[in-house]
Design brief:
9 helices
Length: about 230
């Protein structure tokens, strides 16, 4: 079974209470995704937006009020997540791609804005570098890439402290410990976070300029970069 298919199965189950689980399990989740709307240049008005690893559409939903006339393309490996998006956005003429974003066909200079909210941590280091290059190529000149996630490698000296803080956060919200245990099983099996400074350098190598950190709490980070 391909890695993307395995992750899709995991998130088909996670989709049942996705938003509540993300709020309960991901520190600063709502602050991070709302940060996506707050740091655009003046007069930025994207016509074509790509959401990579869209989940149930929470990030896209943040952007619709700001760019109601944009064409949105939502990509996710989980068919359940795509179905949730179709239901949430049934009044919109959106494009959907039910596939792992590494298998998505990135069209050259096709998008004004590309988003990745809590999805790229499933990629290893080589995959992330390739994805950054695909994203850069797929953006139009002046296009923007928004990216939020946990950005600390598992070998970072601060990682054990991060896990302790994360566990406390989750267990304060969900005290029976079951969700934390599930989360760590998933984290060990599928997640490959990378330090944000390393990723910023990879983004520069891909061609991005003006790479900023609009939001940072510990290693829960939002990066913004311009082509």
């Amino acid at each position: 079974m391909k890695k993307g298919e395995t992750i899709a199965i995991e998130f088909n189950d996670f989709s049942k209470n996705y938003t509540n689980d993300m709020i309960s399990c991901v520190p600063h989740y709502l602050s991070l995704i709302s940060s996506f709307t707050k740091h655009f240049p003046d007069n930025f008005n994207p016509k074509s937006i790509l959401d990579l690893g869209s989940g149930n559409g929470n990030v896209t939903a943040q952007l619709i009020p700001y760019f109601p006339n944009a064409t949105f393309t939502l990509v996710d490996a989980s068919d359940e997540m795509i179905n949730l998006c179709r239901n949430q956005f049934k009044g919109y003429d959106f494009i959907y791609a039910n596939k792992y974003f590494k298998d998505f066909l990135f069209k050259k200079e096709n998008y004004d804005l590309i988003l990745a909210g809590f999805s790229l941590h499933h990629c290893d280091e080589n995959e992330k570098q390739s994805i950054f290059k695909y994203i850069y190529t797929s953006l139009k000149k002046g296009g923007i890439f928004l990216y939020c996630d946990l950005m600390i490698s598992k070998t970072n000296p601060d990682h054990s402290m991060l896990l302790r803080q994360w566990k406390e956060f989750v267990n304060n919200n969900l005290s029976d410990g079951k969700k934390w245990n599930w989360l760590m099983e998933h984290y060990e099996a599928f997640d490959k976070p990378t330090d944000y400074l390393v990723q910023m350098e990879w983004m520069r190598n891909a061609g991005f300029i003006n790479i900023q950190i609009p939001f940072k709490e510990e290693y829960w980070i939002h990066l913004q970069a311009v082509k």
